[in-house]
Specification:
heterodimer; A: 108 residues; mainly alpha; 2 domains; 5 helices; flat; B: 206 residues; Four Helix Bundle (Hemerythrin (Met), subunit A); 0% strand; elongated
């Protein structure tokens, strides 16, 4: 009688512990969408008050919006350390590229 | 017979591997677009006044509308995946249909916008563009390259999600096996993220 129980657990790919309790909810996604729309409105408002404000809006608000999509819509919140590390390394590499470019422009 | 065929299929299944592979592909996509973002950053620092002036000719209303369209399509995509994981097939199909429809609306707006720009003579190699300062020519070059490459990704996403909707309808993608749809969703969301960056670069810069 104990055999079927052992057989069953590796076959259940849904990972009930993760998707049943800690997994995303419909209302979470709708709330994140609401925040994304609000941030877009904020970005448009900020950009109207001049070129400098537009650049700061781009540098501060846009990454927050991208992070929300990555974290919630792309399920990073629910992923393990390996996947998070792989993506983290890629993002840090990109930030280094941009930092090098901006420092080159600033001290030219 | 049937069971014997089913067991190896289960034994060779690796949903995490599939997802990791998809993410590695998405990282190459991020690097591809980042190269263009770096080019934009450098050129903007070199020609600030020209970028400001050329950016003023962009239709900001269309840009913001398309942002709302893509953000909403990301929501319907996410909801479709949640629905299939809960075994709610018709809800998943509805989510996918909305996503594909919004993708088509996005491309329709894009076509409208490009048509207007081309009518104004703002296209690569046009006689009008040749009379403008080099910085503005670079702005329009980057505009067509980056929004064009992004639009191509939207087109690929629409095609892929249409195929997946058929697979969902036929039960090939279901509550138990849905990593393919999840990977399709990852692609669609990344396309959304790229647009999140394109909006301020081209439409809100002025």
């Amino acid at each position: 009688m104990s055999e079927p129980t052992i057989e069953l657990s590796p076959l259940s790919h849904a990972d009930p512990a993760a998707s049943g309790h800690a997994g995303p909810e419909y209302r979470t996604f709708i709330a994140v969408w609401g925040v994304l729309v609000a941030l877009t409105a904020l970005l448009v408002l900020v950009s109207r008050s001049g070129q400098n404000a537009a650049v700061w809006g781009l540098l501060l608000i846009t990454p927050v919006k991208a992070a929300l999509v990555f974290y919630f819509f792309m399920h990073l919140r629910y992923e393990g350390l390996l996947l998070k590390t792989v993506i983290g390394v890629a993002l840090v590499t990109l930030i280094i590229f941009f930092a090098l470019l901006f420092s080159d422009i600033a001290f030219r | 017979m049937n069971q014997a065929a089913a067991i190896p299929a289960h034994a060779h299944r690796d949903d995490f591997g599939a997802k990791l592979g998809m993410w590695l592909f998405l990282i190459t996509e991020m690097l591809l677009f980042s190269g263009l973002f770096l080019a934009y950053a450098y050129m903007r620092a070199r020609y600030p006044a020209e970028f400001h002036h050329a950016g003023g000719e962009m239709n900001a209303v269309l840009g913001v509308t398309n942002t709302l369209v893509l953000l909403t399509s990301s929501l319907s995509m996410g909801l479709a995946i949640l629905a299939i994981q809960r075994g709610e097939r018709s809800r998943a199909l509805l989510g996918l249909a909305v996503t594909v429809l919004l993708g088509l609306v996005f491309l329709g707006n894009k076509a409208f916008e490009w048509t207007a720009e081309i009518r104004h003579g703002n296209y690569p190699g046009s006689p009008h563009l040749a009379t403008l300062p080099p910085g503005e020519q670079v702005f329009f070059g980057l505009y067509y390259t980056m929004t064009g490459l992004h639009g191509l990704h939207v087109l690929v996403g629409i095609t892929m999600l249409t195929v997946m909707a058929v697979l969902v309808a036929r039960g090939r993608i279901n509550q138990d096996r849905n990593v393919m749809l999840e990977n399709g969703g990852l692609y669609w969301h990344l396309v959304d993220v790229v647009w999140i960056f394109l909006l301020p670069l081209f439409y809100l810069a002025a």
